[in-house]
Amino acid sequence: MYYDTLKINDISKHDLDKIRMIAEQNEINFRYFENAIGISLDETTQISDIEDIMSVFSEWRGEFAHLQTEKLSIDWNTSLIRKSDFMTHEIFNRFNSEHEMLRYMKALENKDLSLTHSMISLGSCTMKLNATSEMIPITWPEFNAIHPFVPKNQVYGYYEVLEELSRDLIEITGFDGISLQPNSGAQGEYAGLMTIMAYLHDIGEGHRDVALIPSSAHGTNPASAVLAGMKVVVVKCLDNGYIDIDDLRSKAEQHQNDLACLMVTYPSTNGVYEEGIKEITEIIHQNGGQVYMDGANMNAQVGLTNPGMIGADVCHLNLHKTFCIPHGGGGPGMGPICTAKHLTPYLPGHAVVDISSNKAMGAVSAAPFGSPSILLISYAYIKMMGSGGLKEATKIAILNANYMMKKLGSAYQELYKGANGTVAHEMIIDPRPFKISAGVQVEDIAKRLMDYGFHAPTVSFPIPGTLMIEPTESEPKDEMDRFCQAMISIREEIGRIESGEWSREDNPLVNAPHTSDMATASEWNHQYTREEAVFPLHWVKQHKFWPSVARVDNSYGDRNLVCACLPTEAYIEMPS
Ligand SMILES: *Cc1c(COP(=O)(O)O)cnc(C)c1O
Q1: Per CATH, the architecture of 158-370 is what?
Q2: How much is the pTM?
Q3: How many Å lie between the centroid of ligand 1 and the Cα of residue 236?
């Protein structure tokens, strides 16, 4: 008996078909090769499973076989048997009742500020509503307990969902084909670039390997290009945040013999719809390149415009941004790619499940459709919204961003606006001048927002020292107003430092966030009051979120890890 994987060789085609028929009648799937059968066992396999497997073979042989369990034994090196105790840390041994365990987990949850408390305005991340009704289906075993290589005829319903979702995403992007394989935006970028390479290779242009990438791009863009074997050439941006089209043209012409592609984000990571986008894609095509559109900002396009219309050839979609899969805490995500007709045949294939044309490149992930159970969330979102609803959502997302831009405009400088003085679905505000006027940096504002009960917006991306804010369509006006009031109140606090009322060394910004320990300590030696510290606006009192730790110096904290576990020395076993 071998742990894990068995391969039974030399089975004729006729016998293989027969075994398969018997197995399927008993609701068992094996892996079928040309003339062999593969069986995987793991730590969840029970004796009864082995009996079931044996019964398939005995039925095929027409003879009864009995599993002699008393003869089952596994040999292993006894020196591998653990003699030491394990999981001795107090935390693994303290909670011995359901109530205690529940309270422990709730206590951990309470340290976490989430969308259940207030808006999370992370720009470029699109933190939108993950409706409960969209997420319920992933708890159904019909979807979450299916092996990724299951034969299609056992999961027609699942395939129908995947096919309908595919059709909808193709329509939304204005493209022709799709691969549901990539598990993240970055993996989509890699898959899209590899698709471009496979196409270029096939048309005899395989030597093309230069990727033009604007300096404002997300860090994953150049990283994916390098992984795909391309050389990165950076294109400049103008002072207004737009791509420098003259620089783009000259670099495209300079590389006209080896240009593979441009990677471009639209609307840009600077939060504007670039009016020159069609000219940009034309320049790339004229010089023999393909256009990869980073789809992280699709929340500003769905139903109004699409990558096909602006002249892109391939794009990824962050379904965990635009299409409601929960985003944050590390995923899981889905980053499918959509392609124009000439690229479709080259989309990723799969070694076990037949999903592609004969020109397909290899797989980019182990499962043919990535993490399909979470695709149900995007499917439910699209179906419940309908095409009219999706378009409306995009409009509201843009309206919300512009509403906040106007409200915050009196207190902060926005960095970039489009030609008619508006932004797309997000905006960048620039607190860098406060460094000089009040000694206040972007981190101080981010930390101070915690005292007001808010998660910080995106800090220092794409421009160091700035804040990028994206409300999405999910936030109501009241919540956006609360966030703006907090930001404006922080601006007033900065004013009190500028005027000299509070010193640069001791003010609620540099000391933020304030914990309950700090606020209730017997001694209070600050120039501002306890109330100003922890209840800076009257409504903060109504549902105060107490940060559990005070400021940890950013880089010092990163380099000097303090762990609550037992020290490593405790794990050194004395030689016996
Ligand atoms: C989020 C994001 C990515 C990467 O997507 P992941 O799913 O996080 O890998 C790429 N580009 C932009 C502009 C993004 O905002």
Answers
A1: 3-Layer(aba) Sandwich (3.40)
A2: 0.92
A3: 21
